[in-house]
Input
Amino acid sequence: MDQIDIRSLNEKIEQESSFVDMLVMGMNKSIVGQKHLVESLLIGLLADGHVLLEGVPGLAKTLAIKTLGELIDAKYSRIQFTPDLLPADVIGTMIYSQKSEEFNIKKGPIFANLVLADEINRAPAKVQSALLEAMQERQVTIGEESFKLPKPFLVLATQNPIEQEGTYPLPEAQLDRFMLKVHISYPKPEEEQQIISQNINKEKVEIKPILKPEDIIKARSVVQEVYIDEKIRKYIVDIVNATRYPEQYKLENLKEMISFGGSPRASINLALAARAYAFIKRRGYVIPEDVRAIAMDVLRHRIGLSYEAEANNMTSEDIVNEILNAVEVP
Output
């Protein structure tokens, strides 16, 4: 690709990505700090990938998703997952009308642009699998009819990593449907002071919508134009391949620690998320730093740990870090 193309592409991305700053400013009105959380939600939105947020209660996971829903003039719905939830509570059901003597379809809260699945690991497997069809196929089947979900359609789920009582951990196949799994950490002390003063003074922040669903769909088509060089693609494949065959990358010590590595879906999501990250950084091409920046969130839930890893207190994050340090950067 010659220099002229890259320059004109850069100018186009520069223009088209101007709304990113507006979105970030809007998010910062109600979210203090949590830059990584805000960036991850934008990547999910632009790369058309679902996001799973994990962190202890009270770290503004739900607030962040709700704020994003308010900034986009789109249909937003929140589903609070509980052990007694039924699939019909999520996707909808057929209701018999005595007046017309026929079944009518009542659509559930899944029919929205942004769906907040709060505490997703609290609902039983049946509900989780109902959500799975919606996430993967972008459609829902009620009775014998299938319905397309609106565009854009994004599931933003939260889960609490501490309590395991009364929870149903998401199976690997379902975790794999999330483009990113983001760990939310505690705020810095100075950020926390700001959070306290905001809340004790009851400062009501008014969030006005700045984007329409059509703007998101348009932005996604521009994100698809972001250039990924052949060398970067090879780098992505090397990183994912190292999760499967670490010994090929002089990481023999990891061979016993990994029970399974990332699937091709990991490679695809790495490429898509890296593109969205480059777009957020107002650049028309992907650099290795973009891949490294999002690799942890894309891979942490796609690596199976063996008993040896658990015995050695090794996490999937440790494995990803070792791989990123070992794989040659183009």
Remarks:
- The chain has a mean pLDDT of 86.
- The chain has two domains: 26-219, 226-326.
